[in-house]
Design goal:
The chain is built from seven helices and eight strands; from the N terminus they run H-H-H-H-H-H-E-E-E-E-E-E-H-E-E. By secondary structure, the chain is mainly alpha-helical. The strands form four sheets. It has a two-stranded antiparallel sheet.
């Protein structure tokens, strides 16, 4: 989050002035509302680079060591801690990308290493949010893009499986201690209350106060719905 070594504040301000001039010429040329929208994003990006709030948020070394231990002294745990710090700094949407789960062989040592880190990171985040009185104001969604095969493959592991999976949702007014739906005995397919990806997104938008009927216009002016299908999961609200 620091400027490059050859970029001092004066040069950065000069570049911003040049960009403002170019944008004004572009707006005059095409009357573009798109250029005005881009200016808003560019303004936020500039403030992120040059402002002190982002600098403080990313400085996790200043965090209480006991809180850092709570999350786990590993990349995933410290990223979850950083997510909390970003929310405190005013960021409204944060993704913690815990990559490395695409495992198709030798599953047992893999999960033995990764699951404890994931468990501690999530537990640490929830505990920290509760202790700070933030839990009811932060919606927490823990999910992947699909589940894993119910059967072990020939390499002692599991493969991709889009028919069923598990998601953890909490905070943000979500009803805690609730299990929605179940699978058949082997975990292959939903047995009751199936939930689609659209339903999960609709639930997230609902708790964030976003109108599910929101649409955006593409470059031709054609409206594109924010959500093609899905309804909030009522059992969680």
């Amino acid at each position: 989050m620091a400027l490059p070594a050859d970029m001092n504040p004066a040069r950065l301000q000069g570049r911003r002035g040049l960009l403002d001039n170019l944008n004004s010429w572009r707006r005059e040329a095409d009357g573009a509302s798109a250029a005005g929208t881009m200016d808003w994003f560019q303004h936020d990006a500039f403030e992120l680079i040059s402002g002190p709030r982002a600098q403080r948020a990313f400085d996790i070394a200043s965090e209480n060591p006991r809180v850092r231990d709570l999350y786990g002294r590993n990349t995933w745990g410290q990223c979850a801690l950083l997510a909390r710090r970003l929310v405190e700094a005013g960021v409204t949407f944060v993704t913690v990308n815990m990559i490395g789960w695409d495992n198709h062989s030798n599953l047992r040592p893999f999960v033995g290493q990764h699951l404890p880190m994931l468990d501690q990171a999530i537990a640490g985040l929830v505990t920290d949010l509760v202790n700070r009185g933030m839990y009811d104001d932060v919606a927490l969604f823990v999910l992947s893009e699909f589940g894993r095969t119910p059967r072990i493959n020939q390499y002692a592991s599991r493969d991709h499986w889009c028919q069923a999976g598990s998601i953890v949702i909490g905070g943000g007014g979500i009803r805690g201690g609730t299990v929605i739906g179940s699978t058949a005995a082997r975990g292959e397919f939903p047995r009751d209350h199936p939930v689609s990806p659209g339903d999960v997104l609709a639930t997230l938008y609902h708790v964030l106060g976003i109108d599910l009927n929101t649409s955006f216009n593409d470059r031709t002016g054609r409206p594109v719905p924010m959500l093609a299908e899905g309804e909030p999961i009522r059992g969680l609200l």
